[in-house]
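Sorry to interrupt, but I need a hand with the structure work. I would like you to pick a protein and set down its sequence and fold. Please put the record directly below this note.
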Amino acid sequence: MTLRTTICLLLLCLLRSCASTHTLLADEKTVHDTPQTPRFQLKELPPLPDPEGFAGCFAGISGNHLLVIGGANFPEKKPWENGVKVWSDRVYALPLAVARSIRLGQTPTHPALQMNRTPWKMAGHCQTPTGYGVSAGYLDEVICAGGSHANAHSRSVVAVRYQNSSLTFRQLPELPVPLANHFGTLVGHNLIVSGGQTTSTAAPAEAATWSLNLAQPELGWTALPEFPGAPRILATAATTGKDFWVIGGASLRTGPDGKLQRTWLNDAWRYSTEHGWQQLPALPAPAVAAPSPAPVIQQSPILLGGDDGTQAGSDPRTHRGFPNTSLALTTAHNAWTNSSSFPPAVVTTPTVTIDDFWVIPSGEIRPGIRSPKVWLMAPEKH
């Protein structure tokens, strides 16, 4: 090999090395420029003063208190022991000052805690034992729409107010049809609900979507364009301001034995008056009954766990619990990406927005098993 050839080879190797280095640096810059997936931190609030806890409760803010209303549990025996589900009419109230102190990392100064007692109050009873409806906070009232009780599904829509240690109930226009296991959230002044069942044996689920302007409730419910996906129950709702999201859920059909059969769903949709219904990227796995409405961080809805159906039909006594992952749909990725873990995973429970954080009260941790724990979720500061 001549000296000239050797020099040429060395120069070629050097050029390739520079090109590789340039490519690597470009890739590194792309990674660093990608916005971080929203993350959050979790803290525990004082648990509900019920040893079982509830699935399907309503929740919201009124009178500077967090209210947890109704729901259902198995207080005597579990379902596999032939236990009977009991719907609750109780309303529990927690001072917001307790939640705000814990949010700030401070020790709450509530007198009950200083005496090693619960700061939760039994505020009273709702008009009918009810659960598995939609709740939303509006002008210091908790709006409870639909739901079920032991004998039927309900059309009732009630605004609950807690003031001076007393509960009041204001009737709003009834839902057009009885609904339970539906989903919804407040979008501006409008309470939007979709899906659900008119009876406990109804299949398929409802495809209708309804809106009630809470600023003008006398106008009644308005039908929005019908949901284009598979009619479903127990989806997770969300809003990023002017839109209505539907994430996951389960469709229903009647099996050969006459019993309801579920199909776990992983699709996601968004509705707005400007664009109508639009299909979004699919979830990496199905998600049913995740806490709803989904918290939104940096304009990204955060899907908290949900039942993925992988243990459907298994013995509930050996059920391992529901997934404890969380997903965010970010505009940067246009895909659902892992956000942060959510311990423990709970389903069939609402979320409540307080200031810059959310509360997830009680819920179901395994089939037939509830938890009285109450979680506080706040955006993680970078």
In short: The two ends are 58 Å apart (CA to CA). The first helix runs from residue 3 to 33. The chain has one domain: 36-379. The helical segments are 3-33, 96-103, 111-114.
